[in-house]
Amino acid sequence: MKLPRLLRRKFGDELRIDVVSGNDFPEDLSGYDLVIHCGACMFTRRHVLNRLRRARACGVPVTNYGIAIAALTGILDRVDTALD
User: Fold this and answer.
1) Count of C-beta atoms within a 10 Å radius of residue 64
2) Which string of DSSP letters, residue by residue, matches 44-63?
3) How far apart are CA 43 and CA 51, in angstroms?
4) pTM for this one?
5) pLDDT by residue (tens digit) across 17-39?
6) Which residues face 37 on adjacent strands?
7) What is the dihedral of CA 78, 40, 36, 63, to 10 degrees?
8) 36, 41, 81, 83 - which has most CB atoms within 10 Å?
9) For residue 59, how many other CB atoms are within 10 A of its CB?
10) Separation of alpha carbons 61 and 34, rounded Å
């Protein structure tokens, strides 16, 4: 619930969010603007890479849950400067 709330706060209540789990990952991702992937630890490397390839083939960017939360809460920029 945290991520949808943060996304709607930033982009508006009309934002459509689809939540899938397990093997329900859509074959055709062309109707999406972004995939936020979580739970990669539950799959094999090959399985996750296939999902990433599918998204890339559809031109859809992918990020993970942690990076999305950091970006939406404003701490991602601080990470960049902490590494200098």
Assistant:
1) 14
2) -HHHHHHHHHHHHHTT--EE
3) 11
4) 0.81
5) 999 888 888 989 999 999 999 87
6) 64
7) 50
8) 36
9) 9
10) 5
